[in-house]
Structure formats: C-alpha cells, structure tokens
C-alpha cells in the first residue's frame, strides 16, 4: 500500500471536528531528497485510459468473487472417469514407463536381482570314486 493511499485512509477516519495540519508539517519532505521526489511525481502520464474516471469500469461482486475462488470437489467426476475404462496396460509397457520415469542416478536405480546358482551335481558316481582310489592309491 502506498503512503498516499494510507494518508487518504487516515484522513477518512479522522474525526470531523479536527482541523488539518499545515501543509509543511504534513508532508515532512524538507531536505535534499525533496527535489528528487518532486521530479518523480511529475513524470509523464501513462498512455491508456484515465484511471480517475469511472467510465468503462466493471463493478465486481464480492459474492461472485467468493464463488469463483471457492474450491470445487472433483472426486465424483474423477471416480466416474477412472472407473469408466477398465483397460489394464501390459506389464512390459508399465515396466518401460517406470524405467523412463526413474532417475538416472544410481540411488534411483533398483538393486539388480542376482539369480541364485543351483548346486551343480557331479557326473561321477560313488563307484567311479572308489575305482579311482584303488587305481591311484593302490588301496584294495
């Protein structure tokens, strides 16, 4: 809020019997800055309509503004929309979309799943081991 508007508002709230202060005391602009302030006030008028006139101004209703800014609950409409189409996307497509939306940093990547190794069975039987022992160590 500018100082001029604040001053005008205070003048409206003043009791009617009180006299106005002398112009020199009211402004309080005596000093080196007074000339600069006066120059700023005397700048060229802006192009466009004159804001002092009421012509072309539209009066806004406070009730209409309230109704415009009042939050609207879209829950029912959204539920109808969501429940209307029961198309379920393919799992490969959903995985691809999730991969694209995931960040590129290592912290955003899911941990890689390592396949569990199955215990490898031997191709030799117990009989083959006994036969090897007899031949190699000479144990009968």
TrEMBL record:
Residues 1-37 have a biased composition (Low complexity). One of its GO terms (cellular component) is nucleolus. GO terms for molecular function: enzyme binding. It is found in: Nucleus, Nucleolus. Residues 106-120 have a biased composition (Basic and acidic residues). Residues 38-50 have a biased composition (Basic residues). Keywords: Nucleus. Its main location: nucleus. This is Active regulator of SIRT1. It comes from Rhipidura dahli. The gene is Rps19bp1.
